[in-house]
Specification:
Largest sheet: 9 strands, mixed
CATH class of the largest domain: Alpha Beta
Structural class: alpha/beta
Number of domains: 2
Oligomer: single chain
CATH superfamily of the largest domain: Dihydrodipicolinate Reductase, domain 2
Bound molecules: 6-O-phosphono-beta-D-glucopyranose
Radius of gyration: 24 Å
CATH topology of the largest domain: Dihydrodipicolinate Reductase, domain 2
Number of helices: 15
Shape: globular
Length: 491
Amino acid sequence: MAELVPVEPFDIVVFGATGDLALRKLIPALFHRWCDGQITEDSRIIAAARDTMSDEAFRELAATHIVDKSMSDERRKSWTSFTQLIRYTALDVSRDGEDWNDLKAAMDPNEDKIRLYYLALPPSIYGSVCAGLARQSLNSWNARIVLEKPIGSNYHTAREINDKVGEVFRENNIFRIDHYLGKETVQNLLILRFANYLFEPLWNANGIDHVQITVAETLGAGKRATYYDRSGALRDMVQNHLLQLACLVAMEPPESLEADSVRTEKLKVLKALRPITAATVPNDVVRGQYQAGAVDGEKVPGYAEEVGHDTDTETFVSIRAMVDNWRWAGVPFYMRTGKCMASRRSEIIVQFKEIPHDIVGVAKGTLHPNRLVIRLQPDEGVKLMLMTKDPGPGGLRLRYVPLNLSYAEHFEADYPDAYERLLMAVVRGNLSLFMRRDEVEAAWRWVDGIIQAWDEGQAKLYGYQAGSDGPTQSALMLDRESREWFDGLSR
Ligand code: BG6
């Protein structure tokens, strides 16, 4: 049974507290941990943003994202008690004004208390926030800074930000969030690979034909269009979430789950990624943008219409990546992500090699290679596809069937969401679920190569209908190598 161990008392300052991330994810995450008794009463939540408002007004704003008619009385009571932890302070982080004193006054003066500064802000102002905290001497030894992705928009801006933050906080007090690393099923990747003997001997170019990583969303850019239009799918999703997943699949066994062991192994994968250049980008990368269509039966406008101007930002990207090391020589890692796709699903598919010799002599096409399907969301689970004999008389028939581990059937369905887990990990000082500086920078170096190739004029943008699986060119990319994208649940 899961055991909820309370964390030590802490003060958390949420910068950008009136923004989407804070209201939709962070405050609810803290509330859920409060309800489960993990946060003690002597903790404080200090919401900081530019607008002037009272504590009560902020609590009411936060409530609009949490409290609804269906909420039980008990939960309502918990919400009321939880709000007593929340203070609001108006702060313009770009200025060295009086409001920094107000922030300091809202915090517990005890310098030994754990302090968390969560920057739910654009990365371009991370430096100003750190400078402000340093001026107030709020960067005490036990203070941790949490940086949201994306850190920068390329290698150089990421370095600048990391340098500025690094002037105020030690690397071990910097928690760079990639919320995918907080997902239960993503954490299970390490366990699946390294707590089972079964896979590791085959987990290499001798046993594996290729790997597919898909993160498909049904939603469009929505309210975040201003940010998204400057970013696009490559920077928003590939630089962080998809590459982190690829690292967990491709990395060598770490000595332990200790943060630096894991992070060093992930870094090696990022460094081994074959650079994509202007010469290779037309074959290895497909950019797409959704056009009007229907998702889940609802009509959806095209992306350009949604953002209100002509734009060549990609809302879909698929990539054929190679990890140039001994283990993965010749094994493509196909990655794709997109908005307004046919269905919401994130999954990793490991396609094993075909058997070397067919003793059965069945019709061509009836023997399928083993396939491991790791479904990250929704319908979390792991499936290992195997060939079996179809029981019963009538000649020898083979069937391709799953050994199926469904989370819903096997485990308590209700486990903490990624942000809940990550926030508690920051309080505990557990860095293994966060990205180290060199990882973020190595990921940008590889992604920058693609952006540069696009800038050199190889940035063809293909349309795809909202509600589809992306541009047909993405399917052709695999077809050229006699492969196809799989929908792991369909079998
Ligand atoms: C965020 C991206 O990091 O991840 C969003 O900025 C995306 O564009 C989101 O929608 C997807 O996260 P999840 O947990 O819903 O798969």
